[in-house]
Amino acid sequence: MNLIEKAVQIALEAHKEQKRKHDGSPYIVHPFMVALQVARHGFDEKTIAAALVHDVLEDTDVTEAFLTDELWGEVTSIVKGVTYPDGLEWKEKRIAYNTQVAEGSESAKAVSVADKIHNLQNLLETYEQEGSALWSKFNRGRDEKVWSEEALLNGLKRVWQHPLLDEYETLVEKMKLLD
Length: 179
Prior knowledge:
By secondary structure, the chain is mainly α.
């Protein structure tokens, strides 16, 4: 099995019972969409593999050691670069994450932004169906969601130029217009 096939297998197993909080769809669609986004922008197989498993350390029982054994240290490094740090309050966790991504590799930036792009695409689609009731699905509500996305966007704009970032900015602006 090649690296991407292994990542697909890990992602399928790790996320098999999970659902998306926005719309209840199978969670596995999300990492596939993130991987598709980075592949579409010409990133290498390690970045694509990392995109497929970008949430496994954060949201499943998959361990860092297992991921490294199966997918190499470089893939694990990218995944760690887009995993929220433990042990911090909500806002501090996001600030630390934003710094981590801004200081991370090009691959980590790409996976993070592709992740955010898909999340916002899903959010905007769900808003079309549910309206402002959507915000109740977020622990912190609309204003904190907007703050979080703007903080990451603004931090990355200082250190990275890429079409993914332009797409992310467009979606953040659309989200800001929602009530």
